[in-house]
């Protein structure tokens, strides 16, 4: 038992041990810290000799009612409880990747730009905090044409965010969204998505390069067909030396729901049955091969591994490391 006197003695001893050495007074002062902000949202890791930087674009919250087409809300609440997540809404993060190959920068997806929820739009601040310059981006690779992945290419006022970059998109995705007949036939609720694709890509339509599934998109990055979420939705296998990373894109939305329950279909899955088959196939593959994975909508830094767990899978995030 500590009494008041021994507490005072130990406090005095701690005080003398923590006295600031004279030399520390010459160190630069810490930058001012905003008390309601996290550190900048970037995280680096290596895949072979490639440097990967995950760059966060904030989050969006959405109600859970109706979010999953084929699950009872009680079961959804059970999955949230198991992950210690609140039941009232789902917080969906956005995380893009920067691949640095000897100073040549490739982005995979671009975030929400200035078109997303007020809790998103942090991408450029975080990208710059990681030491990058948007003018130095050589290649932008797009997984699919939903707004949270492409709107970072072009601000609402029309400004191109990466004017020096070559833009590479899935051929099947381009064929679907740029088809005027499909846009005319689409239900009213989907017309906005078609129009947004034209807003983003229209001014550069002649310069956009389209890639096929199973092709090497840039060195070390191979497109993997992951259709269902959208008609041309694409994952990417990043390989270098012994390093292998599967960029899952939106093969699952939040892992606590859809990695654990790969049968569940989010309302964003345009072809729910195909999306489910793709999800199960890719999760099974990365679990068997113990490949590192990156998700667009997993909690930051949105990378880890997939383990088998009952009739589903579990996402095991990486351990944060200061050693890269
Ligand atoms: Zn998405």
UniProtKB/TrEMBL annotation:
- Which residue positions does the secretion signal occupy? 1-24
- Which residue range or ranges hold the Metallo-beta-lactamase domain? 92-297
Q: Which UniProt keywords apply?
A: Hydrolase, Metal-binding, Signal, Zinc
- Give the molecular function GO annotations: hydrolase activity
Q: Which PROSITE patterns match?
A: TAT (PS51318)
Q: Pfam families from the entry?
A: Lactamase_B
Q: Which SMART domains match?
A: Lactamase_B (SM00849)
Q: Which family does it belong to?
A: Belongs to the metallo-beta-lactamase superfamily.
Q: What is this protein called?
A: Glyoxylase or a related metal-dependent hydrolase, beta-lactamase superfamily II
Taxonomy-wise, where does this protein's organism fall, top ranks first? Bacteria, Pseudomonadati, Pseudomonadota, Alphaproteobacteria, Hyphomicrobiales
